[in-house]
Amino acid sequence: MTVNKQLTWREKISYGVADMGFNFYWTNIATFLLIYYTDVFGISAAAAASMMFMIKIINAFTDPMIGAAADRTSTRWGKFRPYLIWVPLPLACAAVLTYTTPDLSADGKIIWAYGSYLAMMVCYTCINIPYNALSGVLSADPQERSTVNGLRFIFAFAGGTVVTAATPALVHWLGGGNDKLGWQLTMLTWSVFASLLFVLTFLNTRERIVPVSTQQSNVWQDVRDLSQNRPWVALFFLALIIMITITLRTSSAAYYFKYVVQRPELMATFVPAYMLSAAAGASLTPLMTRFVDKKKLMMILMTITAVLSSAFFFVPKDQVWLMFALQIGMGLALGPKSPLAFSMYADTADYNEWRTGRRATAMTFAAATFSQKLGTAIAVAVIGSIFTQLGYVANAVQSAGSQAGIVWLMSFIPAAFALLAVAVMFFYNLDNNKLLQIQADLDARKI
């Protein structure tokens, strides 16, 4: 059943601010966790990369289970909103433990890292998947979805900007020179702010689209439906590839400025420059989708990303302004990809309901986050493998080979994945006219 499609700006903003909270976690993980493990926590790059890869794989397989559970949740607040008040506290506790350095042996630290990181990622998934699914039931209007997701990612990139700009200073200030204490208290600070934003979203949003009361399905039926949903399959691989592209550059940036440029303080402005430009790009998404089909727009944006990323290889290490110019350009190009992708996921949920008569919104988004986490795991594994092969040594002068590997991770390697993303989009077969027909047919069935 679908009711009252029109969204107020209060609801749109209230939905969006939660993604700022998610980025208080996610941006820390993507930008700082690997270098925290190697340079503060005190384990090798190989051990850290292997651990993060394994946890991402394990956690990826929990996504469909959590999505299935969310689809089958029934409360007076809806299916997905309750998770925004059920999970913030466990997530905050797990995150603080992840950024805590215990006085243990090398093996003990690795066990601690596995346990705390897995707990954090499972808790993150338990709240993030229902939140993603919520965007698919706020409205059935594709343009409204583009607007909601565009606004959401403005907040997301703003959160990422704040985290990357403020985290190094917070670590120093809160730790008083003790980086181990600084990281623990910094994560506690971000967790408290994130929890408040999640509650705000819960209080000010409403679920308008619910499955018809006669719908019957099971988890395996949901999985079969998705496997036969061609546009969703295309998005699955798109998310996997884009996440590899982004994670390679984001996780390598701290190493790039510390060991190649030898100006680690630039990280405090380099990643925020990307985040701000990405927020600007995301804000333009609803306007662009009025004139350009989502599929074509995604292909254009990923082509631009590949070109700009390749150009980074040729930047001399003393040309900081050029590094920032290319980073801002990539932010503008990649900013719209997130609202585009999440709007397209909601479209594939409609397509699935239109094709099969069954709706599984959370499972649609859960399986999508599965691919994102798998992409992150692959990217971290690539970085760890390259660092190990080239002889990376933490907090030491790097060899020429190690420095070259870091530069490739910032340029040609992610560029190749960006071009692969363009190729994948040829298999996505939902255009604007098809979506209008699907919505008309679904509305007719529910009269």
Automatic annotation (TrEMBL):
Membrane-spanning ranges: 20-37, 43-62, 83-99, 111-131, 151-175, 181-203, 232-254, 266-285, 297-314, 320-336, 374-394, 406-428
Alphabetical UniProt keywords: Membrane, Transmembrane, Transmembrane helix
InterPro entries: MFS_2, MFS_trans_sf, Na/Gal_symport
Pfam assignment, any one: MFS_2
Transmembrane recorded as keyword: yes
Top-rank taxon, per record: Bacteria
Similarity-based family: Belongs to the sodium:galactoside symporter (TC 2.A.2) family.
Protein name per its UniProtKB record: MFS transporter
Organism per entry: Duganella dendranthematis
